[in-house]
Amino acid sequence: xxxxxxxxxxxxxxxxxxxxxxxxxxxxxxxxxxxxxxxxxxxxxxxxxxxxxxxxxxxxxxxxxxxxxxxxxxxxxxxxxxxxxxxxxxxxxxxxxxxxxxxxxxxxxxxxxxxxxxxxxxxxxxxxxxxxxxxxxxxxxxxxxxxxxxxxxxxxxxxxxxxxxxxxxxxxxxxxxxxxxxxxxxxxxxxxxxxxxxxxxxxxxxxxxxxxxxxxxxxxxxxxxxxxxxxx
Length: 232
Ligand code: CA
What we know:
Layout: E1 9-13, H1 17-29, E2 33-37, H2 40-49, E3 54-58, H3 66-75, E4 82-86, H4 91-99, E5 104-107, H5 112-128, E6 136-138, E7 141-144, E8 149-152, E9 155-156, H6 161-172, E10 177-179, H7 180-188, H8 196-210, E11 220-223, E12 227-230
Parallel strand pairs: 1-2, 1-3, 3-4, 4-5
Antiparallel strand pairs: 6-7, 7-8, 8-9, 10-12, 11-12
Helix pairs in contact: 2-3, 6-7, 6-8, 7-8
Bound molecules: calcium ion.
């Protein structure tokens, strides 16, 4: 017997009950496994904790708006395609959404055929780029970028969001010498400018969690006078 492919999982973050019902019915009948959250915070929570193939994200939400949710997901290293649902005429919003890491947008009211077509486009793109989201292994550590999860000998490590982003940046730039200023800019972002000492403190915490011996690190190396280099 042929093995049935796993149902694709769509997370719907939307607060209009009627639209949630319509979209859930339609996507379910197309064979998708649909989850829903009706406000920004629970949407962020579900999007972070469970693996999804596509996220449909409304802009106007109670709790946190769709832009905040989108930005937070990307900052947490979640790379799941996001289609933003905007109200008619929010031209500026579209630009902002794409800037914050959304992959596409749909203007309400939209046709269901249009929606499912857009979802399929994102699924095809994601599977083409699948290697980028595959777990990364070094030593006894496994990093799942989709789930923002780090396992050591199969046991989940309790990394803070910042430690995870720091590790992700190291992995994406392995073998490169990274200065404290670059790490501050890329991992902490332009909006906050803590001192470079912050980088050292977070590197120390990260080492305690991922290194076999944090006093003699073998993955996150100090490059004296310059910064750090990841060699895992
Ligand atoms: Ca709404």
